[in-house]
């Protein structure tokens, strides 16, 4: 099975770029499943029912989230009603949504787990991601999932690396999100887990993490706290393909995508 994970989609411009590029990607690489991190898919950050429906309608099978997943109140009921739209599981203060889903492809079931890091994300009050990962991996196995995929939405590369190594052999694929910068460390770990520290972002190239570069430069240089605005112009799509053996649940091929 070939699984494509797409990095944080930034606003409507990022959603539109996914619409333009995803069909060709799916054909070229014979993709069976698409997972998209959509926590920034609404203009102004967060996710809304409109942005979620858009991505699901153009080919996403599962949408994962992060620290902005619960920013927009209009998405609360949607998160409760749509099994394939996730937010990090280990947010004890969250009242809506979940961080786990099981997708049935007939011949095989795939579990998707969404977790948040703790380092530099103090406002989220996330519980231990290691314990949460163990809990959901056990659930996935009880549910009969042959393939388990983890999106770990975290700031620190050390935390991502540590959890990835901890889950080596327990999950099929592990990818990080949140930093919007694709890392050049895609690999198959010792026990068969496909791993990449961060898959990057999908949105405007001439930006700082999707935001107009002038706004971020002025904030860092002059402490100008102007409101963030999404950049525009030419876009990119970052992601990673994991080819997983359906019998063993191990990754046999991994390839970074940067379009």
Can you describe this structure?
This protein has 259 residues and is an alpha/beta fold. Helices cover 26% and strands 26% of the residues. It is built from six helices and 13 strands. The strands form two sheets. Strands 1, 2, 3, 4, 11, 12 and 13 form a seven-stranded mixed sheet that branches. Strands 5-6-7-8-10-9 form a six-stranded mixed sheet, with helices on one face. α2 links the parallel β3 and β4. The longest helix is centred in the first third of the chain and has 19 residues. The radius of gyration is 17 Å and the shape is globular. The two termini are 22 Å apart. The mean pLDDT is 95.
Distinct helical segment count: 6
Uncertain residue ranges: none
| Basic shape | globular
Residue-averaged pLDDT: 95
**Radius of gyration over all CA atoms, rounded:** 17 Å
The largest sheet, given as strand count, sense and whether it forms a barrel, is: 7 strands, mixed
Distance N terminus to C terminus?
Answer: 22 Å
| Oligomeric form | single chain
Q: Which structural category fits the helices and strands?
A: alpha/beta
- Count every beta strand, where a strand is a DSSP E run of 2 or more residues: 13
Strand content: 25-35%
Which characteristics define this entry?
13 strands; single chain; six-stranded mixed sheet; globular; seven-stranded mixed sheet; 259 residues; alpha/beta
């Amino acid at each position: 099975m070939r699984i494509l994970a797409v990095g944080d989609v930034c606003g409507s411009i990022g959603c539109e770029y996914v619409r333009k590029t995803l069909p060709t990607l799916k054909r070229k690489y014979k993709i069976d499943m698409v997972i998209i991190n959509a926590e920034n898919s609404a203009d102004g950050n967060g996710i809304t029912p409109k942005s979620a429906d858009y991505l699901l309608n153009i080919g996403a099978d599962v949408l994962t989230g992060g620290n902005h997943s619960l920013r927009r109140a209009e998405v609360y009921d949607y998160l409760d009603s749509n099994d394939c739209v996730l937010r990090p599981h280990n947010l004890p203060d969250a009242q809506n949504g979940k961080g786990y889903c099981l997708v049935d492809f007939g011949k095989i079931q795939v579990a998707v787990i969404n977790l948040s890091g703790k380092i530099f994300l103090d406002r989220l009050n996330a519980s231990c991601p290691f314990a949460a990962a163990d809990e959901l991996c056990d659930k996935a196995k009880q549910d009969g999932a042959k393939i388990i995929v983890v999106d770990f939405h975290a700031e620190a590369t050390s935390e991502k690396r540590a959890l990835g190594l901890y889950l080596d052999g327990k999950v099929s694929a592990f990818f990080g999100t949140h930093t919007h910068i694709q890392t050049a460390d895609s690999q198959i770990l010792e026990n068969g887990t496909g791993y990449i520290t961060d898959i990057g972002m999908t949105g405007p190239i001439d930006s700082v993490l999707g935001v107009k570069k002038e706004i971020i430069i002025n904030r860092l240089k002059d402490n100008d706290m102007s409101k963030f605005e999404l950049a525009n112009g030419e876009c990119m799509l970052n992601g990673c393909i994991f080819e997983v053996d359906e019998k063993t649940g191990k990754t046999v091929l991994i390839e970074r995508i940067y379009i």
